[in-house]
Amino acid sequence: MLKHLFLHFPSLLRPRRTWRRRVAATVAPALAATALLVSGAGPSHAAPAWDPKPSPMTTPWTNQVPVDHPLPEYPRPQLTRPDWTDLNGIWDFAVTSRDAGQPSTFGEQIRVPFVPESALSGVQRKITQNDKLWYKRTFTVPSGWSGRHIQLNFGASDWETTVWVNGRQAGAPHRGGYDAFSYDITPLLNGGTNTIVISVHDPTETGGQAIGKQRIQDVTPHPGRSIVYTASSGIWQTVWLEPTATAHITRLDMVPRLEDNTLRVTVRGAGGADGTSVKVTVSADGTTVGSATGTVGTEISVPVPGTHLWTPEDPFLYDVTAELTGTAADKVGSYTGMRSIAVKDVGGVRRPVLNGKFVFQTGTLDQGYWPDGIYTAPTDEALKYDLQKHKDLGFNMVRKHIKVEPQRWFYWADRLGLLVWQDMPSMDSGKTPDTAARTQWESEYRAIIDQHRSSPSLIQWVDQNEGWGQYDQARIADMVKAYDPSRLVDNMSGVNCCAAKDGGNGDVIDNHNYVGPGNTPTEPVRASVLGEYGGLGYRVPGHEWYPGGGFSYEDQPTTTALNNRLVGLLDGMRENTMPAGGLSASVYTQITDVENEANGLMSYDRQVVKVDQARVRAANQALIAASRSLGATVKLPVGQNVSLRVTTPGYTDRYIRHYDGLGFTEVVNAASGDLLKQDATWTVRQGLANKLCYSFESRNYPGEYLRHREFRVRREASDGSTLSKEDATWCPVQGSGGVRMSAAGFPGQYLRHINAELWLAQSGSTHTWDNPASFTEDTTWAIEPPWAP
After folding, report:
1. Is the separation of the CB atoms in 233 and 207 below 8 Å?
2. Which of 48, 189, 331, 361 is deepest in the core (most CB within 10 A)?
3. Cα gap 480→525, rounded to integer Å
4. For residue range 713-759, what is the model confidence (pLDDT) as tens digits?
5. Which residues cross the membrane (predicted)?
6. What pLDDT, on a 0 to 100 scale, did the predictor assign at position 49?
7. Calpha distance 349→141 (Å, rounded)
8. Does 328 score more than 80 pLDDT?
9. Of all residues in the chain, what percent carry a pLDDT higher than 70?
């Protein structure tokens, strides 16, 4: 749990059981939840009493969820107003066939905003494409809201949502599962007790829409080695009311500009607000640092002198207010972080730079699933917990994997200091999307960008993943970059996987390597990142979703083995892949187990942290620190012949040679025969798999290279495959008295001589050639003039 007491929006951070909540004066205006003034405010008397269902696994927060007012925190921290009413709680509920009209009776109850597939909803059953969900409740508008417009807001509802108030439809149905939406219901109110009815149809993978990892399946644990999970249908984020002026602010688009120490703000509005005069003020610790006046819909430049930069180590946030001036009285509170993100050359390598400086981004894949709430975290403290664990483990980044979280998740990432890669949820991986699906997907993507474009933690959009529902990769990347030029764009995560196609553009090139970490070949324009690696598994008895059903990419027999393997991967990036191979970021799979995936750093129920937290944190911190003082890469003479000499004391007269296709070391001197001298001579080539690394071509067998296969190092021709090229590519790092040659595909494993044979070795691993004795000396080579010209 978090131990830090944050001063920014303190009431947002501490859930209270009271129904009226306020926030600190640093947010102007202060937030408050207004009491629901209604007789029998919840469901009608026809439905039976609500009861929870037993969760397949119990998180520390499962039993802390209030029955009547779950998730009571203000849901929109970057656009706050003083009055609002939370509609979370017990609603009447019914399920009909998808084509049916509103039912005459609602025979069940559901706890909103938990989906009916979840235990926390109190329903807990499978919903299919043939079903339609129905929700119903009543409310009365507080008398203090008289004369204002009433907005009905939804954080998210999956997928097609239709709303009626007092029997009249509120606008058009909303289609989308991950973006917020609202209705002005003022004309539909009756001045007394009002009734809301909501229908939702969610076809999940049988439709063409964005679904991420949702699939229709049994809601209780079952066997299966699947990387897709239980579907989440219907309302899954907070539903709430707020009063506004007729002309009112709907969004603040905020872009920091460090070049001139300004915050560029575009205030968006509705109800005739466009063109209205608006004043934007930026403050810190209650003191105004800058303000400017402009009009709604146009960019306003607000000075922020003496800018305090936002970084993962120091996630400083400024308070922001925007107020319509003149007769239009609307004022909102917000916050921002001053930071920049770009890609530029650093020591001759393209790398992402935060505030102009390269820092290695080390993070995890975060699926955002819960055994009790599925898509919805049980409490705000739970939502915060996973992000805090990233910080505790030393990570500075998180990749939110093909799901979009509530705005409060982004608030916590902003507050805690985590760089966020945000995936656009993919369409079904087994289909080629038709025209209607593509139009819907792109529309929802733009809505998601609009909703989260002002979060300082969010630094990169990830358009598509491993070819799932892929199409028009290059066009989409250009579209996203044009729509939000202030962030990086990844056109495809995992371009080397699963028939994925690289659009060739965007800011990064992104490979997936399991277990890895492997490397992503460097390019002259895009930065090289590793969008997924790891997947190390360890099953914790008593904390398995389906006991005995867990799987991973590489099971570990003990927690000691898990820690050694994970730290070894991190150290390999620090020692080799980052400095020698040009890697700039990596995403470990994954922060928690999810259903039958047992490759989390924590168990699915968040009850157990499987790894040594201090040790993993130290490895991540060392990796980040090394990136800040990164020197130049080791350069070898491309196109020239060299010989590679042993540096181990007592063996320094030996050189690498090939014999009958295998690699050995042998004494070579002036008296040696011509054949031996030729066999001990290699031509340095640019790395077949990475231009920053090198391949060694046999001098007397052109087209054959020094490569590893099944750990043994040999002379072999490349067959043109990616694997063959990687196995014949070596990334040098500076050693004492020479260079150490790390395998491009296996950072942390080195070219080693032992008993005159050449092996791919990792110190302390399980093979005889991994013996740690004299390991560093045996893996260090002097680059000498060639024995054969």
Report:
1. no
2. 361
3. 18
4. 999 998 999 899 999 999 999 888 999 999 998 888 999 999 999 99
5. none
6. 81
7. 59
8. no
9. 94
Helices (H) and strands (E) in the chain, counts: 10, 48
Half-sphere exposure of 353 (CA within 13 A, CB side): 11
Rounded distance between C-alpha atoms, residue 361 and residue 353, angstroms:
10
Q: What is the residue-wise DSSP string for 186-242?
A: GGG--SSEEEEEEEEE--GGGSSS--TTEE---SS------S-EE---EE-S-EEEE
Taking the C-alpha atoms of 518, 528, 457 and 506 in order, what is their torsion angle to the nearest 10 degrees? Answer: -140
Residue type for position 115: V
Domains and CATH numbers, the chain: 85-244 (2.60.120.260), 248-329 (2.60.40.10), 363-628 (3.20.20.80), 640-784 (2.80.10.50)
Cβ atoms of 603 and 559 closer than 8 Å: no
CB 110 within 8 A of CB 77: no
Instruction: Report d(CA 713, CA 728) in Å as an integer.
Output: 9
Give the pLDDT band (50/70/90) at residue 9. Answer: very low
Residue 143, token pair as written in the block: 């008398």
Q: State the Cα–Cα distance between residues 139 and 192, nearest whole angstrom.
A: 8
Q: How far is it, in rounded angstroms, from Cα 232 to Cα 115?
A: 6
Would you call 29 helix, strand, or coil by DSSP?
A: coil
Which amino acid appears at position 611 of this protein? V
Q: Over 425-452, what HEC string results? A: CCCCCCCCCCHHHHHHHHHHHHHHHHHH
Within 10 angstroms of residue 82's Cβ, the number of other Cβ atoms is 18
What sign does the dihedral 706-711-712-717 (CA atoms) show?
negative
Helix (H) or strand (E) holding 482: helix 473-483
Q: Which two tokens stand for residue 436?
A: 């209607």
Q: Do 314 and 418 form a contact (C-beta atoms < 8 A)?
A: no
The region of weakest confidence among 408-412, 415-419, 688-692 is 688-692
Structure tokens at 226: 């699947």
Q: How far is CA 107 from the centre of its chain?
A: 39
258: tokens are 């460090």
Q: Find the mean pLDDT for residues 211-215.
A: 97
* The residue to which tokens 């610790």 are assigned: 285
Q: What is the mean pLDDT of residues 251-265?
A: 98
**397, containing H or E segment:** strand 397-400
Work out the pLDDT band at 18, boundaries 50, 70, 90. very low
Is there a contact between 589 and 535 (Cβ–Cβ < 8 Å)? yes
Would you call 405 helix, strand, or coil by DSSP? coil
Backbone angles phi, psi at 588, to 5 degrees: -85, 135
Distance separating alpha carbons of residues 518 and 533, to the nearest angstrom = 8
My answer on whether omega of the bond before 515 falls inside 30° of 0, hence cis, is yes
Residue 280 has a pLDDT of 97
- Alpha carbons 103 and 745: distance in angstroms, whole number: 60
